[in-house]
Design goal:
This protein is mainly α. The chain is 77% helix and 3% strand. The chain is built from eleven helices and three strands. It has helices at 19-49, 56-73, 76-84, 92-125, 130-133, 136-163, 179-183, 191-225, 229-257, 263-290, 293-307, and strands at residues 9-12, 89-91, 171-172. A three-stranded mixed β-sheet has the order 2-1-3. The longest helix is centred in the C-terminal third of the chain and has 35 residues, at 191-225.
């Protein structure tokens, strides 16, 4: 590959040293991608057309589904092409676009998860004032902040990463263009950049996570005071799906961005990245559908109406 005419292109090494693994990954990624598109499109559709789902929770869930669709689409088609064929290259422009888009959408998802935790806090801890607190104007503003935060983060981190001199280096030991792996292409001392990435990750990852934990801390205090089993089950049903999604997303992405130079990140970083870019968006609609009676009811009404 290094002797072929790929001047200006980036070679995504991925798992090219394990051809048998590539075949398995191709099938798994393709199935996950199709499920992601179908699942998140269905959620977006039912949240848009079902009047019973015109609430802040499902407003933010619609945005989360849109983020997941765009996030996976910015990565998976090129990934499937590289897994299937002998060529493992992506144009430098394509790599830049992939870096900016995936970083923006990943950052947006982190803030959206924090906003959804605040929504659950308002629903459980302030039930009598929930409608007044989570009014449509505030919901739109919070969603706008999430998207703007994503754009701002990608413009800063992405530009700083691409500004590093590469001195002609093309081999990227990853499945796609991502900040921790792109930094390693630099032919200069990147210690300061790795510190900057660590600090930025602490702020952009842990700050939303702290807001999520703070919201659920208040929810736990309220729930503990309730002695009704039915109320406990209702609170768990309200927050359980979101907690599972948060655990899956933050548990995997933190291992790559918080400690990019750890032995664990070096050994398993590529597969971990596949998990939060391919598997987690697939599981999100399943989690929200299987654990949520409102969504299941909306699905039944939608299919029953279409059948009729």
């Amino acid at each position: 590959m290094t002797n072929s005419s790929v001047k200006g292109n980036v070679i995504l090494v991925g798992s090219s040293d394990q051809p048998h693994l590539e075949k398995i990954l191709f099938v798994a990624v393709l199935i996950s991608y199709l499920l992601t598109l179908v699942g998140n499109t269905v959620i977006t559709l039912i949240c848009s057309v079902d009047p019973k789902l015109k609430t802040p929770m499902y407003f933010f869930l619609t945005h989360l589904s849109l983020v997941d669709i765009c996030f996976t689409t910015s990565i998976v088609p090129q990934l499937l092409w590289n897994l299937k064929g002998p060529a493992k290259t992506i144009t430098f422009l394509g790599c830049v676009i992939q870096l900016y888009v995936s970083l923006a959408l990943g950052s947006t998802e982190r803030v959206l998860l924090a906003v959804m935790a605040f929504d659950r806090y308002a629903a459980v801890c302030k039930p009598l004032h929930y409608t007044a607190v989570m009014n449509p104007r505030l919901c739109q503003a919070l969603a706008g902040v999430a998207w703007l935060r994503g754009v701002g983060n990608t413009l800063i981190q992405g530009t700083v990463t691409l500004w590093l001199p590469r001195c002609g280096q093309q081999l990227l030991h990853h499945f796609f263009c991502e900040v921790p792996s792109m930094i390693k292409l630099a032919c200069v001392d990147i210690h300061d950049n790795e510190i900057q990435l660590f600090v930025a990750s602490l702020v952009l990852l842990l700050l939303p996570l702290m807001l999520i934990l703070l919201s659920y801390g208040h929810i736990a205090k309220v729930v503990i005071r309730i002695k009704s089993v039915q109320a406990w089950c209702k609170a768990l049903g309200t927050c359980g799906s979101h907690l599972i999604v948060v655990s899956l997303f933050y548990g995997t992405i933190s291992a790559v961005y918080i400690q990019p130079n750890s032995s664990y990140a070096h050994a398993h970083g590529k597969l971990i990245s596949l998990f939060y870019t391919v598997v987690t968006p697939t599981l999100n609609p399943l989690i929200y559908t299987l654990r949520n009676n409102d969504v299941k009811g909306a699905l039944q009404r939608l299919f029953h109406r279409d059948f009729t």
